[in-house]
Amino acid sequence: MKTAYLCLAFMALASRQMEVFAMYEMKYTPPNYPSENKTLVGFLIRSFDYSHHVTVCGKACLNDGKCKSFNYKEETTTCELNKASHLDSESALEDSDGYIYLMRDAFFLPAEALGACASDPCGNGTCQETCDGKFLCVCEYGVWTGDICETPVVHGGWGDWGLWEGCSVSCGTGVHYRFRQCNNPTPSEYGGRACKHENNVMNVDAEKCNTTPCPQWAMWEPWSICQPGHTSCGLGTRSRMRSCMYDGTPDVDPGCTGSTTETGVPCMSRDCDVPLKLTGSSTYGEGILEIYDNIRDEWGTICDTDFSSHDANIACRQMGFSGSAVGTPTITPISDTSYPILLSNVECTGSEVTLTTCTHNGWREVTGCSHDDDVALKCAVDARWGKWSPWSLCSLTCGAGVQTRTRVCDPRSGGTCIGVADDTLECEVDTCNPEI
Ligand SMILES: *[C@@H]1O[C@H](CO)[C@@H](O)[C@H](O)[C@H]1NC(C)=O
Ligand SMILES: *[C@@H]1O[C@H](CO)[C@@H](O)[C@H](O)[C@H]1NC(C)=O
User: Which PANTHER family did the record assign (predicted)?
Assistant: First the structure.
């Protein structure tokens, strides 16, 4: 390092200079301007207090390339070197007792005696003579650099951002980065400031990327109608489907593992023995045939399309009659159009036990029917006995007698009941013993 050759102590320098000074002839031409009791203020380079004679101060000025004038005070042996003279700034020359002000020009010393710094080789830096007679420039930190402080110090500036690099994810939201360098300009090696952050961002910038949604299942579509197996009621199966959204591959993409369909899932269709009833007539066994939807908890009618005598027999038997009677009752159709028609195209083979097990178009799959087309039935009504009355008391209070009971033919049936209306039973009461 250059600093190793520096003579750091001024004292040492001064004593050596005295020696050198002795070897050369120094000329001192007194000035032809007022200099006694004057001092130049405001251009100080440096000062020192061990200048035993004005010529020592003069030589220091000659040795310093920047020195243009100096102030000397004999009383304190103070030497002040100035970088300007009163020719540069007349007003800077002020009165001050005990001082003497002199310009560099008042002195002369051969060049070789002045040392390496006398020619002011450092420009904007400070020259320091080294022990081997050479010089070293000390530059103002952060302002000048280079061997002779000739190069302005450059502070760093950011270059342009590079392109955004790849996103961290292929779907959903990820992050990507871009980079820049402190190279516009690159800071000087000595004294150049590095680039500063801008809004907390240095050389890396991050941003959200890729807002393409990841594949995922769509909602299941609604279940299909519960399809009963062999009949139109009872246990059945149903199915539903879904799709993988956003170009996903089902059972491959993580968001879409599983099946696209669910089929054959057990379900309960309408009960096979949903109740039937006859309405709209006061005559027993007659009326508009209604059927109960146990899923919607609602009664409704049946359209007479394809309704055959087979169907009528099954419906009547299901309601407890022996079958259907010939003819159709005349009943005022239901006027409420919002009242549901539940079945149409009911076709029974004749062996079915309930109407629901016959084929039909499906519950509520009714087209082209109005309540004018509702099935109305007249079921065959057998004359029916009413309940037996309780047995009467025994006809005798002592010995063997009879008990009787009676029944009446149901007046709603309109026919003749087969069988007897009276019934008797022998009885014996054991109250003949006089001892009792
Ligand atoms: C400088 O000041 C000293 C002390 O006040 C005085 O004795 C001397 O005469 C002055 N010299 C000049 C040239 O005015
Ligand atoms: C010294 O600095 C000034 C500005 O401060 C500049 O104009 C001048 O050129 C510099 N001198 C040298 C020798 O670099």
Answer: EGF-LIKE DOMAIN-CONTAINING PROTEIN, PROPERDIN
In ligand 2, the atom with minimum distance to the C-alpha of 144 is 14
Nearest CA to ligand 2 atom 14: 150
C-beta 340 within 6 A of ligand 2: no
Query: Under 8 Å CB-to-CB from 193, ≥6 apart: which residues?
Result: 142, 155, 156, 187
Q: How many CB atoms lie within 10 A of CB 394?
A: 17
In tens, the pLDDT along 162-186 reads 999 999 998 889 999 999 999 999 9
Helix (H) or strand (E) holding 315: helix 309-318
252, burial (CB in 10 Å: exposed 0-12, middle 13-18, buried 19+): exposed
Kindly state the helix (H) or strand (E) to which residue 63 belongs, with its residue range: helix 54-63
The atom of ligand 2 lying closest to the CA of 143 is 5
- 207 — phi, psi (to 5°)? -155, 150
Stated pTM of the model: 0.44
399-429 per-position pLDDT tens digit: 788 999 999 887 665 667 888 889 998 888 7
User: Are residue 81 and residue 107 in the same domain, yes or no?
Assistant: yes
Q: Does any domain span residue 414?
A: yes
- Alpha carbon of 272 to those of 132, 187, 346: distances in Å? 122, 92, 14
Higher per-residue confidence, 420 vs 288:
288
For residue 422, the SS3 value is strand
Diameter of the chain measured on Cα atoms: 191
Same domain for 53 and 65, yes or no, is yes
For residue 187, the enclosing domain spans: 154-212
| Residues flanking ligand 1, CB < 6 Å | 36-37, 97
More confident residue, 256 or 230: 256
Is 398 inside any structural domain? yes
C-beta 150 within 6 A of ligand 2: yes
CATH of the domain at 322: 3.10.250.10
CA dist 380 and 320 (Å) reads 10
Model confidence over 23-77: pLDDT tens digits? 677 787 778 888 999 999 999 999 999 878 888 899 899 988 899 999 999 999 9
Atom of ligand 2 nearest to the CA of 150: 14
Q: Cα(25) to centroid of ligand 1, in Å?
A: 30
Quote the number of domains for the chain: 5
pLDDT band of residue 317 (cuts 50, 70, 90) is very high
Are 358 and 311 in contact, with CB atoms under 8 Å apart? Answer: yes
